[in-house]
UniProtKB/TrEMBL annotation:
Official protein name in the record: Class II aldolase/adducin family protein
Protein species of origin: Flavivirga amylovorans
Ranges of residues in domain Class II aldolase/adducin N-terminal: 12-188, 232-404
UniProt keyword annotation of Metal-binding present: yes
Keywords carried by this UniProt record: Lyase, Metal-binding
Alphabetical list of InterPro entries matching this protein: Aldolase_class_II_sugar_metab, Aldolase_II/adducin_N, Aldolase_II/adducin_N_sf
SMART domains noted in UniProt: Aldolase_II
Coiled-coil annotated spans: none
Length: 429
């Protein structure tokens, strides 16, 4: 279990995650359910027919190992398949079922999303199973789902229904759920502007083999007030990025220059939703804060700061509409509205792999542009103040969204060259 959840009651864990799922538009008022099985074998589960948008910890129901129900509501109507999964897979301690729109799209055309669309998703999601349609809430549905979990899957597409995922704890299950829905959205949006391209297993293995924590540890670490203030800024932007759908639990790096070329950066393998000040890693004199493992992209952030003195903050993330361009190779023309071009100029696309091959980094770190897209991986946004950099990210994502959605209406008509020159003279000279 995640250390941050160890002393959090199952009721509170469930309420927090259902809030995230609902607020991100990945379930409806009445749809979806979450459960946790505790060390005594009791199952804590969301109630039946209670508004997911205002669920309280006190609404969560406990179904005791002997079948006794404790709580003021009935357990979810889908409780039978939660119970069946736990009986079949003792390694699974939490289950999420929901109807997120992109995954439902796959379920109604009876397909499984290919998680090789982005670097880390295959590792997080694992192979994806498929459960044939059965009556919701029935023991029969529980049987077919349990049969899929019996094969070793932790993520299942439910035919004409939605998805169900398991994890070693609720954080693990939610990361898998969020990553799978992100893959589905990226494939759908990419299909509207081009043909999605997938990574090979060898590409993904190379990504996963990246060295972590290779920087030596610094001997003495101090935390003056200006350093702590930057930690707070980073945590706030990471949280905001997650809330806005611009970052997911399992991927996203934010850094800020501190003094000279020393900087602060988010760690690896820490859930982005739950990032705290003490998780942030200080990089001082090319060395990492003792006992912490910074992002695998730390070397690249370090080189950007070393070579680009005007850059004081960096956001590296996956947002669905920008990644639609990243997985298709389609050109993202930000000459959509004046603000987009003024903020972003042109957005470069670079080949997958340059972000972790240290001998092939010139496209990103030399004369670093405001925004770059790494194929099948991420978008990198740079700027001065961190809030400004976040604004650039939002503008880039909104521009990408407008182009993806507008594609069904007709061909994009960008701002022309004369209009761009007028903008350049007024705002950039």
């Amino acid at each position: 279990m995640s250390k941050k959840n160890k002393l959090v009651h199952p009721r509170n864990q469930i309420r927090k995650i259902i809030d995230r799922i609902y607020q991100r538009g990945m379930t409806t008022t009445s749809g979806g359910n979450i459960s946790i099985i505790d060390e005594q074998g009791d199952i804590w589960v969301t109630p039946s027919a209670i508004d997911k948008g205002s669920l309280r910890a006190s609404d969560i129901v406990c179904v005791k190992k002997d079948g006794t129900i404790i709580g003021k509501h009935k357990p979810s109507s889908e409780f039978p398949f939660h119970k069946a999964i736990y009986e079949e897979r003792p390694d699974i301690k939490s289950v999420i079922h929901a109807h997120p729109p992109a995954l439902v799209s796959f379920s109604i055309v009876r397909q499984i999303p290919n998680t090789n669309i982005i670097s880390q998703a295959k590792h997080i999601c694992g192979p994806i199973g498929y459960a044939n349609y059965r009556l919701p809430g029935s023991d029969d549905l529980g049987d077919v789902i349990a049969e899929e979990f019996k094969k070793g899957y932790k993520a299942i597409i439910m035919e004409n229904h939605g998805t169900v995922l398991g994890g070693s704890d609720l954080t693990d299950a939610f990361e898998r759920f969020e990553a799978l829905e992100f893959c589905a959205r990226t494939i759908l949006y990419g299909s509207q502007i081009g043909t999605p391209k997938y990574l090979s297993d060898a590409d993904i293995d190379e990504f996963e083999a990246q060295a972590t924590g290779v920087l030596p540890e610094v001997g003495v670490v101090d935390y003056p007030s200006d350093e702590v203030e930057k930690r707070l800024e980073i945590c706030k932007i990471v949280q905001r990025s997650c809330q806005q759908g611009l970052m997911i639990s399992s991927y996203g790096t934010v850094s800020m220059r501190w003094r000279n070329n020393d900087f602060l950066i988010t760690p690896t393998d820490v859930n982005r939703w739950d990032m705290e000040l003490d998780d942030i890693v200080q990089i001082k004199g090319g060395k990492r804060e003792v006992g912490k493992t910074p992002s695998r992209a730390t070397w690249m952030h370090q080189e950007i700061y070393n070579r680009n003195p005007e850059v004081n903050s960096i956001i590296m993330t996956q947002s669905p509409y920008l990644m639609a361009f990243g997985v298709t190779g389609s050109y993202l023309n930000v000459r959509t509205i004046p603000e987009s071009w003024i903020f972003l100029q042109d957005i470069n696309t670079v080949k997958y792999g340059v972000h972790f091959r240290k001998n092939n980094n010139s496209e990103i770190v030399n004369n670093c542009p405001t925004a770059s897209i790494i194929e099948n991986d991420s978008v990198i946004i740079t700027g001065d103040k961190l809030l400004q950099t976040f604004d650039y990210l939002e503008v880039a994502e909104f521009s990408a969204k407008s182009i993806v959605l507008g594609n069904s209406l007709g061909e994009m008509v960008p701002i022309n060259d004369n209009q761009v020159e007028d903008l350049r003279e007024k705002f950039l000279t």
